[in-house]
């Protein structure tokens, strides 16, 4: 597509973009190597030796959570749809209160490395661990796919290259780097990549926000007026441009809102970050930092989004390679020319790299710790066997996600949809089970299995029969129509269904809850006795 | 692998005794009486906001000053309440739950809840450690 190349050449300098990204890679690799010197035990590899401070972990969580879909996607949605893009970001933020109030500290106190540690705590180990590992892998894979496809998609826009070969090459490079970070640095290296990325991302967004506001005399109303003038309608300031079209789109938005607010605290890669700090109190501090950083970042996104709407204009954004995702980079170019565009482009790449590294380590830990060590080997593994398996798994997952990422890119799968799907699965399969495990004395193995598998199957099943997959112009398979479920997001049905199944599975079994383990779980969760401590070197 | 010894050292009986102790009942009550109602409150407020944005867009489009409308103020209000609830929770945990949790943790480590320990000792900290 030579046209895109020509269009790109006028908005930025690929050499600058690549060199800034290259600098990020070199610096983070150096840090990863330094960090890896202390990697000895499983606690080092999975949980950074539990030596990350609350503050650092808060930054790393922000780095993990603010994916390219957040950064580019939300700013772009606000630039084009206005208010409805803003709605999206609020769900992502409010969701953190679930993590703070109900999940983070209790999980930190009761588990060692993975989500399954908590879910299987008072249940029959084999079946529940397997179920939790399957759901962890499902969520991580959808999330990973979204990021990999996003990486390829960004290329057309930011590096001035396009075409299937170049995009596939970029996905491969991102995947290879990710595998390298995870293999060499383990959780410690991954954490530092995320910390650096979060700092760069927030600093970059701050610069753009102040710049936009300065252009409008630090008057929010004037900026909103500018966006409305450019769009030719005050509609961008009001809700409804995207989701208010029909009754179905309204229900769809409510469904999405539920998936966002209940999904965050069930994302395995977010949960795993809580194990990297030394105490429950540090886990609390890290969520507090994460909430402030993420909240402030979304406020920046609001300004950047309306700024792009006002100063670049929706038509220009939609016409640019990368479409909606181009809003923030185009605004950066409008404001600060090639240099600012280069910085924002480099940050966007760094963002993807940091998120995929976090996902890979989570998925590999879940397989090695839950499936290999606990279920297959029944805990009988040599000292370093588990970490060895985790490293091998990381390579396999990396390779699989490179392949699937290239396919997803070729099939034109929507990135925001894949991320929303990951949230929906996490909200349906994981969160109900976590809450029951932590707070309901009578919860049993059968209840846990029903809520995990039930939530997972209903969630994915409904998506298969939704307009996302077939029956609409924007579907994956527009030619056929086997869609009978009208909503694009299944959360409205699958989340209550999973809660119901967890309850039903529990009351319909003769199995008695393990009261001794319940006492241990409750006392450990609330007092922190017996919680894993930091590794001394 | 470093499997900590302390977890083995605490018996199921000790966990049961700790769970049944009045201080744990109080700790649990303090934790739940903050976390549960607050969760319901922020979820209701969030859902109200989502419903207003989807089904009452005329109301949300009412201009308040300049180009700022009700919807934007409610949206920013969600940020404010999130930050405020975060702060309230931390204050609550520091003041109301951490002191009990810290004391119980020390006593569990000292095996104060073991069945053999003299009955009075489960209530008065310090007696067994002095």
From TrEMBL, chain B:
The chain crosses the membrane at residues 34-52, 72-90. It comes from the Bacteria. The keyword Transmembrane helix applies. Keywords: Membrane, Transmembrane, Transmembrane helix. The keyword Metal-binding does not apply. Coiled coil: none annotated. InterPro entries: DUF485 (IPR007436). It holds the Pfam family DUF485. This is DUF485 domain-containing protein.
